[in-house]
Amino acid sequence: MAVTKTIPVTAAVREETAEKPPNRFRQAFPQYAAISPFFILFAVFGAFPILFSIWISFHSWDGIGAMKFVGFEQYSYLLGDPKFWQAIGNTMIIWVLSTVPMLLLALVIANALHNATRFRTFYRIAYFIPNVTSVVAVTLVFGSIFSNNFGLLNAFLQSIGLGKVEWLTQPWGIKIAIATIVTWRWVGYNAIIFLAGLQAISADVYEAAKVDGASPRQTFWRITVPMLRPVILFTAVTSTIGGLQIFTESRVLFGDTNNIGGPGDAGMTIVSYLYQSAFIKNQFGYGAAIGWALFILIVLFSIINWRLIGGNDSERLTSRAKRRADRKIAVQKGAAK
């Protein structure tokens, strides 16, 4: 009589589970659940508005009724809209008037703070406070300073024998007033960024330059500025992005909803025109088109800053060495003649 060998049930189940691969999703589910709030919030408040703005830029929509598909008509009208080009011109002028002096002044302030020996922490806090101050409150204060009739600036000009300037009615006066507010608010922030870059430079480099007989001016322009190039690139790109998105300063300075850019729309920026088109005239499709045009401008100017300030270090060093060698050859040829 043959004897059949039976395998215990527990052993069979154990062999079956050993052969079955583990479920990776179940194992990683607690980790995915822990980080899911960020992705859910980003999808709702970040990704969806971006995709929806692309969608409505191809539609004519007043925010309530049905959408009407118009294709690229919003963008074609944008290219021929004189107000849009005026807003671009105003934004560029304000950006140049604010960003260039702001970065130069921030670099000088950072260098002074880096070399300061007393009250260093106090000065850092004092320069950074404007950045955390309410931009609305700051704009109201500067509005009283640049006021045409009772402004402090005109009172000072008249006290030294000069005539008053119509700051808030003349086109250039409006742009200078807005640029001054932007510069005052962000110069301390950029100075702190520059200061962090200066502290990362080794003191041995300055000591070697001092031993070689370099003057403070030569040290600043030939050591400090080149070694701060990555920091300068960062501040230039962030200042470009912020400068092209100026809105609050002009909006608060000229509170009139019907004339959001001041007299002659001299203070109307790109974002101001976007706000006026979308939220005052209820042209949400056209406002979305303006927003994406602004996005393209920011990308283009960021690339320009990258090419002018950033780039490949080895290529720059090679080109410099080649130029120096060419100069030496030209001098030797001139001396030989």
UniProtKB/TrEMBL annotation:
| Domain ABC transmembrane type-1 per the UniProt entry, residue ranges | 88-305
Family matches, as SUPFAM superfamilies: MetI-like
Source organism: Kribbella albertanoniae
Annotated TM spans: 32-58, 92-113, 125-146, 186-206, 227-247, 284-306
Q: Which Gene Ontology terms describe the biological processes this protein takes part in?
A: transmembrane transport
**What InterPro entries has UniProt attached to this entry?**
ABC_transporter_permease, MetI-like, MetI-like_sf
Membership in a protein family: Belongs to the binding-protein-dependent transport system permease family.
Q: Where in the cell is it found?
A: Cell membrane
A Pfam family matched by this chain, by name? BPD_transp_1
Q: Which PROSITE patterns match?
A: ABC_TM1 (PS50928)
What domain of life? Bacteria
The record, for PANTHER family, names: ABC TRANSPORTER PERMEASE PROTEIN, INNER MEMBRANE ABC TRANSPORTER PERMEASE PROTEIN YCJO
* Cellular component per GO, a single term: plasma membrane
Keywords assigned by UniProt, alphabetized: Cell membrane, Membrane, Transmembrane, Transmembrane helix, Transport
Topological category with respect to the lipid bilayer:
Multi-pass membrane protein
Please report the name of this protein according to its UniProt entry: Sugar ABC transporter permease
